[in-house]
Amino acid sequence: MVIDYSKGKESMDYPAREKTYKGFVRLVIATITLVALILIGMAVFLL
Questions:
Q1: What pLDDT does 1 receive?
Q2: To 5 degrees, how large is the angle CA 33–CA 37–CA 38?
Q3: CA–CA distance, 7 with 9 (Å, rounded to integer)
Q4: Model-level pTM?
Q5: Cα separation of 27 and 23, whole Å?
Q6: CA neighbours closer than 13 Å in the CB half-sphere of residue 5
């Protein structure tokens, strides 16, 4: 993803925002994976 810094305000910290976004995406992926593993485990052991 390419960000055009020329039209943004100087006060906006784009690298920090991008780092936060990447961390959020990683957290979402980890959460979805954990939930999927729990559901698979429940299906195997409870059915």
A1: 64
A2: 120
A3: 7
A4: 0.71
A5: 6
A6: 8
